[in-house]
Amino acid sequence: MTIRLLFLIFTFLLFSAGPLGNFAFADYERGLAAFERGDYATALKEFLESAHDGEAKAQYYLGLMYDDGLGIPEDDTEAVRWYRLAKEQLLVAADQGDAEAQYYLGNMYDYGLGIPEDDTEAVRWYRLAKEQLLVAADQEDVEAQFRLGQMYFLGQGVPQDYTEAVKWWHLAADQGFAWAQYNLGAMYQYGYGVPVDYVLAYMWFDLADRNKIGGFSLAVKARKALRKKMTRAQRKKAKKLSQEWLEEHR
Q: I need a surface site. Which of 58, 142, 172, 250 has the fewest CB within 10 A?
């Protein structure tokens, strides 16, 4: 599996902005947590409940699950149905200036999710999202910083630029955002936008696991795989750096 595909798979797992106390959203968050850990049966149950209550992101994920056969048989008809339901709501939110909805729409047009691929529309929505994300990122919004890194990594509405992706992910990671720390680990492991550095890769994977509530199984697996490529001295140095970072950022 290529690193680009890895980032594509997890490009939608970050944002969970929604009304507090909203039962549909609570179901969505439980579904998202289950999806992350590969428990697709639970994810399907929670997403269905949330989607029937009108949560667009849950409808989107149901489209993904039917599209790729994640825990259920592939079903193009069902995938398209859920994608289109999500799109209707996302358009309303996007027209009202919701950057997250604009980004999701960019992805739908970019990858032809339930609608024909349309590069022009994808770029239009990505760029609208970027304008707002830049404002939020400059105000130290970690999720906006992370999303900008994602856009530069994948070349979504902007020229692909791994160095710029690293810059935005570093800003988010320095605030303790576990997903940014995980991605930085991958960048240092494979040398995207930075020189290959197993010590720093291990450090960021370790921090991602320690900073994410409930742990971070992806980071644990990445750290374990990387460990086999490192010397004992390198592992010792990485653990020391990780601990120093935690003490400095308490």
A: 250
